[in-house]
Design brief:
Number of strands: 16
CATH topology of the largest domain: Porin
Structural class: alpha+beta
Distance between the termini: 47 Å
Order of helices and strands: HHHHEEEEEHEEEEEEHEEEEE
CATH class of the largest domain: Mainly Beta
CATH architecture of the largest domain: Beta Barrel
Strand order of the largest sheet: 1-2-3-4-5-6-7-8-9-10-11-12-13-14-15-16
Number of domains: 2
Length: 462
Amino acid sequence: MNAMRRRLADLLLVATLIAGGMAAPAAAQDMDSRVRQLEEQVEELRRLLDARQDPDLVEIRRQIDAITAEIEILRFGADVVVAGESRFGFGPAASKIYSSPHGVSIGGYGEMLYENFATEREDGSAATARDQLDVLRAIIYVGYKFDDRFLFNSEIEFEHASTGNAGSASVEFAYMDYLLSERAGIRAGLVLLPLGLINELHEPTTWLGTERPVTENRIIPSTWRESGIGVFAEFEHFEVRGFVVNGLDAVGGGSSKAGGFSASGIRAGRQKGSKAVAEDFGIAARADFTGIPGLVFGASGYLGESGQGVDDPTSPGDELGVRTLITEGHAAYRARGWDLRALVAAADLDDVTALNTALGFAGDESVGERMTGWYVHAGFDVLRSSQTLLELIPYVRYESVNTQSEVPTGFMANPANDLDIWTIGAALRPIPQIILKTDYQIRSNESNTGVDQFNVALGYIF
């Protein structure tokens, strides 16, 4: 038993020295050889432990699993995006509070976007969109860690530079956590719903493209936040989160001033914690596999009614239900210079005929009974093998979205809401906290009215 403990201590020491760079002078082949030796010794310890049933060995097994994860990171090297940079679904800057000592934590991010629109639509007719240069977002994260159990975290967002012009100021999230352990807790307040790849982890350095995918704008209405309570947990190879929140407002016009659903999606049904009508609630949940360095894949969903107590105009005495189900599956891989993503999402709504009547919609104005969207993207750091910290990442994304995939009988779909987008561009990261992105988007739809555009974006986090 003592010999086993000594061998484990030796493994921990070697792994720590390598991770800390103390073995840097060694040749690359020496590093590979040592990693292979560590793997062999870990497997030998596993065999010895499997032959014993002593409950005191539980902690040793846990430490061996930690060494195994460290070896995987050593083998991948700096190409792995270390999971510790992001906690419980948040981006690196939003996660600072979790690794900070007691007291105040400050972080933030920002985005600036230039859009240059084509002068013609895809059918050759004149396009009227005017070019824009926008301070899209300026964000401040403010957190406070009261002790090892209680913490507060918030995101204050300023959009479009000035509330005196086209801008606005909002609380993006503001919640309290009670940490049951280092890997699990209870959260209450204004929370981000754990759907998709962008809604929680939306800092500009964490995704490629000058603009967020349309699927995660119209079907998953990022950034989507509502007030509620829920739980979160990180396991050895999995992460889960789930919340109960106030529901969407499909009709709009209530105390939250939500605009309601439309033919272009459910985005305007968000209530954003602002005097939210809470006649109806929803449940959002997510599960991810994280057992391979750099890889995340999983699924999430939302279910709730969105009528919010409004009378059903087609059935006197009844309330409008508008059951709203959103489901999505996703995968992302970021390691060895690659940045790969794929996501598919769908929204299914009930009572849409009654909802259209309540909204006064007719013809092709109908809200979709079913909305679908998906995208894939790939990027690769062409400077990965060079002796520089600079990253240059050409990328391409293809996306297909239809917010009127199905409409009720008696209504029709507007072909302009069935669109495809090719995005081709490149990103430059001089350091991990700053990114410059530029791309060209080829936009087409079934009505042949798409307008291509050229974009440049600057993003930062701190």
